[in-house]
Fold:
Amino acid sequence: MHLTPSRSFSRRAGLAALAALGLAIGMPAARAQAVDPALEALIKGPQRSPANSVRDKYRHPAELLTFFGVRPDSTVVEILPGSGGYWTEILAPYLKAHGRYIAANGEKASTSEETRKDNAALAAKLTADPADYGRVEVTEFAADKHAIAPPGSADFVLTFRNIHNWMAAGETKEAFAAFYKALKPGGILGVEEHRGRPDQPQDPLAKSGYVRQDVAVGFAEAAGFRLVGSSEVNANPKDTKDYPAGVWTLPPTYRLKDKDHARYEAIGESDRFVLKFQKPAG
Structure:
């Protein structure tokens, strides 16, 4: 399986290192932007579940959505919001009056018990709060098997910590092709992922859950996207990325349960890269 297009890993590793340092890669480094007060209010709003709100210190939702450029009138497709709907709780009410929120969750006909549970839990969440979620549109995502949105209709496609799953399934090419098709010319693909070590070879199946930043850039560029920005808002230098159960050793999963729990709690959630890609306008 090819992890990059024609360019070499070594060149991409250099680019990724520069991005991590906030230096120029043919673009200005990400700068702090003013956050919409309405967005801030929703992040602190009563529609947020405690289980999701407690993760804000690791996920920085206001800074992340502002960096990507999401506005109240945007059409946003979120890939695999899952059962918890962390971003659904923020994006759906933010976009309900003037924009459009599309939740591209798992395939309805999937035989996976996890996918079925995720779909059922999200459906129940939406039904329970029509005031906030009554205008949410649910589509299916399974690589490129379904249209996640009408072609050329989305201002943003956002995916959070999913690339390792597509690598394991051998579906990265198809996934990024689906994003490209859904976006308008000039539309933005926002990507967050557990950041792998640049000094080690990338496992093609990403069994640890970590993905090298240069490898992720390669997937997006191979699909036709252009890297236009990066942010270190979700960086975590405490993350050593060498755990017995991969990234799932850390919170919130704690796959080792009580073993060394305090140690992993002190580390916190994973080190993550945040990348902003654009579909060419012409």
Q: What stands out?
A: The first helix runs from residue 9 to 20. The longest strand covers residues 183-194.
